[in-house]
Amino acid sequence: MRIDILTLFPEMFAGPFGASIVKRAWEKGLLDINMTNIRDFAHDKHRIVDDYPFGGGAGMVMKPEPIFEAVQHVKQSAGSERARVVLMCPKGRVFNQEMAKDLAKEEHLIFICGHYEGIDERVREKLVDEEISIGDYVLTGGELPAMVVIDALARLIPGVLGEEESFLTDSFYDGLLEYPQYTRPREYGGMKVPDILLSGNHEQIRMWRRKMSLLKTLERRPDLLKEEALQDEDRKLLKKEF
């Protein structure tokens, strides 16, 4: 997958993308991440990318020309006009795991990181395929949200994680929160690992984990179960004692 990030602050990505899973995916060639400074496409000597809003109002608005030219530049660099252009902004759809799975199928993504009071509406109308928000709050720019989205989708790309099935048990992947996880030691501070996990009975362990996922979701995020059609097995598991 090729990912192009259009930003006013490319240096912000050095830390998060220079470590952990995203770094390894980049080094393996599973991700090709490119930074483009929108200011490079401003034509005045001060590289100004914003201006006052028509009609008045507080704040500044990002100009259309540098963004249009930056998007065209990265498409030409990729040798293809086919790319999904994503604008990170508070007006977008709230990001979730289903959106991450959808984005992970793309071959080329272009992320536009907004700033100031917003972006000229013509960018939304002619360039952007999708607008994404990471929550009902406002940040100073689209860089941090872009990092969140890229991290979430990157781990779904085959070969990125050490174990291919790791993401299948993540919270939200199948509409439920993840079951509890334990590791050594078996007992710590009087707290013991559930016996079922030490039994070696893989089918019983699977059922216990499914039940724990259902219970955690009912307790903490019952709204998710409105979308999750409970199977007959799930109803039986909720009554089953382990």
Largest sheet, described in full? 5 strands, parallel
Please state how the strands of the largest beta sheet are arranged side by side.
2-1-6-5-8
Q: Determine the CATH topology of the largest domain.
A: Alpha/beta knot
Instruction: Kindly provide the name of the CATH class of the largest domain.
Output: Alpha Beta
What can you see in these coordinates?
The chain is an alpha/beta fold and 242 residues long. The chain folds into two domains: 2-154, Alpha/beta knot (3-Layer(aba) Sandwich), CATH 3.40.1280; 171-239, Trp Operon Repressor, Chain A (Orthogonal Bundle). Helices cover 33% and strands 18% of the residues. It has helices at residues 14-17, 20-28, 64-78, 97-103, 121-126, 143-154, 202-220, 232-239, and strands spanning 2-7, 32-37, 50-51, 61-62, 84-94, 108-113, 118-119, 130-133, 187-188, 191-192. A five-stranded parallel β-sheet has the order 2-1-6-5-8. Helix 4 crosses helix 6. It starts with a strand and ends with a helix. The model has no long low-confidence stretch (mean pLDDT 91).
Secondary structure blueprint with pairings:
Elements: E1 2-7, H1 14-17, H2 20-28, E2 32-37, E3 50-51, E4 61-62, H3 64-78, E5 84-94, H4 97-103, E6 108-113, E7 118-119, H5 121-126, E8 130-133, H6 143-154, E9 187-188, E10 191-192, H7 202-220, H8 232-239
Parallel strand pairs: 1-2, 1-6, 4-7, 5-6, 5-8
Antiparallel strand pairs: 3-4, 9-10
